[in-house]
Amino acid sequence: MANDKSSMQLISRGILSENPIFKLALSMCPAVGISTTVMNGFMLGVAVLFVQVFSSVTISLFKNKIHPRIRIPTYTLTIATWVTVIDLALAAYMPEAYAKMGIFVKLIVAFAIITMRLEMFACKESAPDSFWDGLGMGLGFLIGMMVIGLVRELLGSGAILGYDVLGFKPLLFFILPSAGFFVVGLMMAFFNWIELVYKQAKGMK
Amino acid sequence: MMMRRLLKYWTIAVLLSLVPVCLQAAELVSKQGFGKENEIRLSFAAAVGKDVAGYIANYTVFEESDPDIRLEIKEIVLSPDGRQVSLLFTEALNSANAHVVSIRDSDGKELTSLLVKKSYLGYILSILISALLVNNFVFTKYLGLCVFFGTSKRKTTAKGMGVVFTIVMVVSAVMSWFFYQFILIPYDLNFLQIVVFIGLVSLTVQAVDTILRKVNPILFNSFGVFLVLVIANCVIIAVPLMMANYNYNVIETFMLALGAGGGFLLALYLMSSVRERLDLANIPETFRGLPIAFIVAGQFAMAFLGFSGLQLF
Amino acid sequence: MKDILTIIIRLTISCMLAATVMGAAFLVTNKAKKHNEHVNEQRVRYALLGYSQEKPIPESMTLHEIYRYIVSDENSQSIGYLLPGKDGLIFVTIDMAGKIVENKPVQIDEAKVREKEERDKVVREIVGGGKDVSFADQTIVVTENGKRKAYLLDGKFTGFKTFIGVMLALDPQFSLLGLEILEHEEDPGLGAEIEQNYFRNQFKGKSFENLKALDVVKEPMPDAYFQALEGNVAESDAAAILKQYVDHDIYALTGATISSRAVSNGVKGIAKKFAYRLNILDTVLTDEKIAVAF
To answer: What Cα–Cα distance (Å) separates residue B144 from each residue in A185, B149, B163?
Structure first.
C-alpha cells in the first residue's frame, strides 16, 4: 500500500505543487515576520515540520476514535500539545535560536495549514501515509522559509548563515520586517511566471 | 440594536474602570506631576507656610524602586500664595519611574507622603495607541496575515471580519487574563499557556456563534461566517501570550485587546480599499491576486514604520 | 444523550493524554533549561572579565554573589544584603541613614541560594513577620586571591522600543571594564547596533568621573577610533588610539541617537547607584567589623 513511489509522491506534492507558502498562501505570518536569515527560517521550518508530522501521525492513529462532532477541538488540542512540546524543547536546548524566533514558535498553533492537513488527509488515511504527507508539507514550508531567508539575508546583510559572503550590505531594507512582504510577493509572482512559461511551453508543444 | 447596547455597556465599563484612577487625592497635596525634565510640581489644597514648603531639608524624594537613593534638590520655587511649589533637581529625572515625595514640617514630623508618576490613564491609552498604530499587529508585527489576505478583498467583508474579530479578541483576552492570574500562575502551570489560551478562544468563538444564532439571526447571517476564521488568526493567540509575558492587569489587557482588534480592523479596511481599486487596474498577469496584494501590504508596512517611537503620553 | 456522554468522555481522555505528554515534556526540559541558563550566565560573566573558552578563568579567581533586598514595614524601609561572610552566608540590614539595623547568619545551601523562590523564602524567614521583602538586584564581586578585582552588575532600563538589559563590569575604583547587552528589542540595523563592538567598546576604560558626566554626541566617529574599537588594529596601536578617546563622550549610532542615549544614561545610572550603595555597605561592614569573604 504505502510503497516508496507513493511516499515520494506525497512528499513532492508537499514541496512543489501544494507548497504551503507559495501555492496555498497559508501560514504566511512567519514567512514575512522572521525570515530575516536562513538560520531563522530553518529553525522555524524544523519546528513546523515536527508539529506537522507528529500531529498528522497522532490524528491518523486515533482517527477511528475521534467523534465527528468534536473533530476540530481534538485537532486543536493535538496541535497545541505538540507545539507546547517543541516550544519547551527549543527553549531548553537552543536558547539563542529560540530567543530570535520570539513568539512565533508558540503561534504555530494558529497555523491554518496544519489543521487543514489534518482535516483533509490525516483523519482519513493510514499512519504511514500521513507521516509522508506531513513530512512533505513540513519540508515544503521549511524550504520556502529557507529560500525567503536566503534572499533576505543575502541582499540585506550580505551574508549567508552568518558568513559574510558579499563583504558589504547591499540594501539594509531587506532585513527590516516590512521587506518580508515585498520578497514574498515578488517570489509568488516569480513562481506564477515560471508556471505560466511552463504552461505556454507545454501548450505550444 | 445589539451593537448599540454592547457599545453602551463597553463605555460604561471603561469609564467605571477609570474611576479609581481619578480618586487619587491626597489630603495636603491636591495635584502633583512632572514638569520640565528635572522638575516636580506640587499644588497644595490650602496655602502652606514658607517655613515648611520653602526649605529643601523638609523634602525627601526618591524613586519608588530605589528608596535608599535620595535625589538632590537644587532649588525650590514657591508661588507667592503658597499653594504651588516647584522642586528643581540637580539631575534630570527619570519620569518613567514613580517617585515618592515626602514632606516634613520644621520639627521633623512627617506631614504627607505621595507618589508622583505619569498619569495612569495616559499609560493605558498609550497601550491602546501602541497596539493600534505603533505596533499594529498586521503591519508591524506580521501576524494574522492569512486571514488578512483572505478577507481584505471587499470593504464589506473587511468590516465584518474586523468587528467580529475585535469582539472575540476582547472577550477571550479578558477570560485568558482570569485563567492566567487565578489558575496558571498559582499552580505553576505556565507551560499550559498555549493549550489554555487556544482553548478559551475556541470556547469564545463557539459561545459567540451560539448566542448570535439565537439572539440575532440577521446579524449572524452577515457576520457568522467570519467566526470560524478567527481561530486561524495568529493575533488571537498572540495577545494572551503578550499579556502573560508583560504581566498586564485586567485594564491593560482590555486595552491591548481593543487596540489589537482595532488595529486589525484598520488594516483590513485600508487594505480592502486599495484592493477594490486594484481589481480595476491593469496588473500584469503574474502579479494578479496575491503577489500584488503582498507588495501593497509591504508599502503599508513601510508607512506604518513611521509610527515607530510615537509617544503621546 | 449517549452521544454527548461519549463526546465528553473522549474529550476528557484526550485532555488528560495531552496534559501527560506536556507535563512529561516540561519536566524533562526544565532541568536542561535551568542548566543552560546557568551556563549562559557564566559565559557572559567571564566574557565581561576578559576570559573565554580559549582563555579560561584562573583558579585563584572567585565570584561572590551579593543579593540586595528591600525590606519594608509600615513605618520605614531598609536595604538588606544577603552576602557571603567568612563562614557562611549572612544577611545585613541597613537603614536609610546608612546605619546597621541587624546582622544575622543565614542557613541555606550553596546551590539553593541561586533559586529565586528558595532564597526569597529564607530571607522572609530571617526578616521576620509583618515585613514585606522584595528582591532588588544582584551584584557579583570578583576576587583574586582574596583581593577585589571587579564588580559585575546587571540592570534594565527603557530603550527606544521597550527595555534594554545590560551587564557591566566595574573595577574597584568604579571605572568601566566592559559592557554587554543582554537583551533588547531595538530595530535591526539601527538600534540593534548597540550590540556591536564599535559601540559597546567606547564605554570601556572610562573612569568613574567620566561616567558620571557621560553624554552622547551626534558626530561621526573618526575612522581610526572605529577600527581600534572593532579590533582591526594591532594591539599596541589600538591601546594608544583608545587612550586618546577615553575622555570623550560617546559617539551616537547613526539613526539611533535615542537608543545610544538610553544605553549611556542607563550605564551612568547603574554605575552611580552602585558606587553609592557599595560605599555605604563597606562603611557599615568596617564600622561593625563584619568579616566577609570579599
So the answer is: 16, 9, 15
B176 to chain C nearest CA, in Å? 18
Q: What are phi and psi of B246, to 5 degrees?
A: -90, -5
Residues B52/B111, Cβ–Cβ less than 8 Å: yes
Averaging pLDDT over each range in B233-242, B267-276, C87-96, C235-244, which range is the top one?
B267-276
B309 chain-C contacts, CB cut-off 8 A: 160-161, 258
Task: Note whether B180 and B240 are within 8 A (CB).
Answer: yes
Q: Any CB–CB contact under 8 A between A105 and chain B? A: no
Joined grid coordinates for residue B206: 463557539
DSSP for residue B9: H
Grouping H, G, I as helix, E, B as strand and the rest as coil, residue B281 is coil
Q: Which helix (H) or strand (E) holds C85?
A: strand C77-85
Q: C257-285: per-residue pLDDT in tens?
A: 888 998 999 999 899 999 999 998 888 88
Look at the alpha carbons of C145, C148, C150, C151 in this order and tell me if their dihedral is positive or negative.
positive
Asked if A93 and C36 come within 8 Å (Cβ–Cβ), the reply is yes
Per-residue pLDDT band at C243 (split at 50, 70, 90): confident
Q: Which helix (H) or strand (E) holds C143?
A: strand C132-144
Cell of residue A45, nine digits: 521550518
Q: Is the pLDDT of residue A112 over 80?
A: no
- Nearest CA distance, A152 vs chain B (angstrom): 14
C137 three-state secondary structure: strand
In this complex, the residue of C22, C70, C276 whose CB is nearest that of residue B67 is C70
B292 contacts A185 by C-beta, under 8 angstroms: yes
Residue B162 to residue B151: CA distance in whole angstroms = 9
Single pTM value for the model: 0.79
Lowest mean pLDDT across A173-182, C216-225, C263-272: A173-182
Q: Do C26 and B67 touch (CB under 8 A)?
A: no
Q: What is the DSSP code (8-state) at residue B27?
A: S
What cell numbers appear for C28 in the block? Answer: 524533562
Of all residues in chain C, the one with the smallest CA distance to A75 is C14
Contacting residues of C for B69, CB less than 8 Å apart: 273, 276-277
The Cα B167–Cα B22 span in angstroms is: 28
Q: Is A138 exposed, middle or buried (0-12, 13-18, 19+ CB in 10 A)?
A: buried
Residue of C187, C258, C273 lying closest to B66 (CB–CB): C273
Nearest to C7 among A70, A80, A89 (CB): A70
Q: Three cell numbers at A18?
A: 501544494
Complex prediction ipTM: 0.77
- Which residue of A19, A21, A24, A32 is the best one to mutate when testing the B interface, meaning the one whose CB has the most B CBs within 10 A? A32
